[in-house]
Amino acid sequence: MKKIVYRIFVAALAPVLVCSCLQNLNTVPLDTTTTAANDAYAKPSSYMAGLAYINAYYNFVSTGDPGASDLAFSDAGQSELVRQWTNLNELSVDSFKCTWGDDYVTDIQYDKWTTADNAALVAVYTRCMKGVTLVNEYLAQTTPELIAQRGQESIAATVAQYRAEARFHRCMFYWMLLDCYGNPPFATYDNIANGTTPKQLGRVGLYEWLVGELEELAQDDDMPEYGEVAYPRATKGSVVALLAEIYLNAEVYTATEDKMGTAEWQKAKDAAADVIAMGYSLEPKFENLWKQDNTTNGAAEREFIFAVDYDKDHAQSWGGTTTLASAFMSADVNQRLADLLGTGGSGIIPENWNGYHVSNEYVNYFELNGVDWSGKGFGYDRETSDKRAFFINEGIKEFDKADVSSGWRCWKFSGLYTDGHVNDASVDNYKFSSMDYPIFRLAEMYLIYAEADARLNGGEVVDPVAIGYVKALRDRAGVDMPDTIDLDFLLAERARELMLEGHRRTDLIRYGYFTSMQFPWPYKAGVKNGKASIPSFMQVFPIILSDRTANVTLEQNPGY
Fold it and tell me: 431 to each of 316, 319, 403, 424, how far by Cα in Å?
């Protein structure tokens, strides 16, 4: 119910943002003296509507039709942040591949991107920079001074809380930019208030700003504690989880061309421990995390620390979990799933886009029993296998980019509800997914804690608490514990536990495997057997061409 009330504000957001320059990448906040701005925030409810829009910008492509983008994309779904952020972080490595011929798909999945713009690179960069713009504008319009000028002192404390949440979102957008692009332009209200062109801080500088901002928010009384505000709003759990993520990758983020970065394993472990202590809990049944009603069945609220909200009625998108559900399916496989699961109808996925596939090499990370890819059943015995495996095979084990029937399909994201029914694809709204997408969840905090412990102890987990966290995940998955938990086991466990959740590229870079010929995957660097290296400069993507044209002060990342 709390989430439904929150969505009402999303539906009312358009009038608040009529002057927010959504049609271009304007990094200058709204002029605080304009009548339009004062009119926009005349009603107390407008402050929540503005925050709701920022919270929704991860999956919104416009303030109206989900099929029409406010960016210059012919396919609106391809302009969505979560969809293309997932592609950059999962399609570029070994998680999945795609048989579609789109230029951006070819560039990303074969590790052949250049400085030329493509949909994935442009969408993630532009959405994140626009997200920063929205937050800067919101912070400019919600200062204590303006609240007093508008005679709204009675809501000042509430608005202060909203401002803290907005600052977290700005950190999220900048973290995505830090991780993917390294050195984006840096814009806050203070450094561009007079129309100054935003400059770059450098990757190390942006890392340091993010750490400082997040540590401040973690101590800020205005930032709500976990459970104080309606899911999926950001809380201190979201703040500290992002800190844990950044600390985990500190050695990568602080490296320069001539100097190794500084690892922060203890800080990563401490931050993960702080989040774990906040009251989140593992959903007992892993599959419930990936149901269409993962909010109302309680799974998301228990385990998701920060998530992107999808809803077939109020927060529609052709990206996100809609894409992750439909893009893996062919009509035949969809029908077979319905038959095997006994749901009736023609499938368990809303539509059949027939493009995404998982290679046998990635499926091999999962402990599967009775594997038989002859085309009957799932291709393995689901009852006795890892509960995190949601695979089905059409009878051709090995993925071949030229064969749409090859490889494994993944139905982790589907149209299933907890009670077993599925969305009716004949109803227009039901083609969209209502499954929320987690950016951070408790299971990953367990894995961060364990990996940091291993990094601090010669590559092996020794802390009994960390061992207990890994055991909790293995028990839920229905698989045995290994005798030793080392770093390579933890990387494989992250592949199993966090499949398609946007972490894989970052993980492989942290481990030094992304560029190495010694860690092949199908079509790595365009080579079918994957026995190829990737140039080290490609650990970050290029600053997009259109932004460098608009802002000639921007320096391109080295190597491009």
Answer: 9, 12, 26, 8
Q: Residue 336 contacts by C-beta under 8 Å, 6 or more apart in sequence? A: 392
Query: Taking the CA atoms of the chain, what radius of gyration do you get in angstroms?
Result: 23
Residue type, 547: D
Pick from 55, 18, 98: nearest CA to 311: 55
345 is in which domain, residue-wise?
323-413
Confidence of residue 27 (pLDDT cuts 50, 70, 90): very low
Of 306, 267, 247, 269, which Cα lies nearest the Cα of 448? 269
How far apart are alpha carbons 313 and 347 in whole angstroms?
21
Q: What is the DSSP letter of 416?
A: B
Asked if 226 and 280 touch (Cβ cutoff 8 Å), the reply is yes
Which one-letter DSSP state was computed for residue 200?
Answer: E
Task: Establish if 330 belongs to a structural domain.
Answer: yes
HEC sequence for 480-517:
CCCCCCEHHHHHHHHHHHCCCCCCHHHHHHHCCCCCCC
* Residue 218 forms part of a structural domain: no
Provide the β-strand partners of residue 307: 438
Asked whether residue 10 carries a pLDDT value surpassing 70, the answer given is no
Full DSSP string of 307-357: EE--BTTTB--SSHHHHHHHTT--HHHHHHHHHHHT--TT-SSS-----EE
Is the separation of the CB atoms in 485 and 450 below 8 Å?
yes
Q: Which residues contact 425 (CB under 8 A, 6 or more apart)?
A: 346, 347, 350, 351, 415, 431
Separation between Cα atoms, residue 543 and residue 117, nearest integer Å: 9
What whole-number percentage of the chain has pLDDT above 70?
Answer: 91
What pLDDT, on the 0 to 100 scale, is given for residue 557? Answer: 97
Q: Can you point out the beta strands (E) in 422-463?
A: 437-441
321-347 residue pLDDT tens: 999 999 999 999 999 999 999 998 899
Q: Token digits for 180?
A: 């993917």
Give 100's Cβ-side CA count (13 Å radius): 17
Give, in degrees to the nearest 5, the angle at Cα 337 between 348 and 323.
Answer: 45
pTM: 0.94
As a residue count, the chain comes to: 560
pLDDT tens digits, 480-509 = 999 999 999 999 999 999 999 999 999 999
- Whether 256 maps to a domain, the answer reads no
Count of the separate structural domains present in the chain? 1
Judged against a pLDDT cut of 50, whether residue 5 lies above it is answered with no
Q: Which two tokens stand for residue 96?
A: 């999945």
Number of C-beta neighbours around residue 377 at 10 A: 15
Is 167 within the bounds of a domain? no
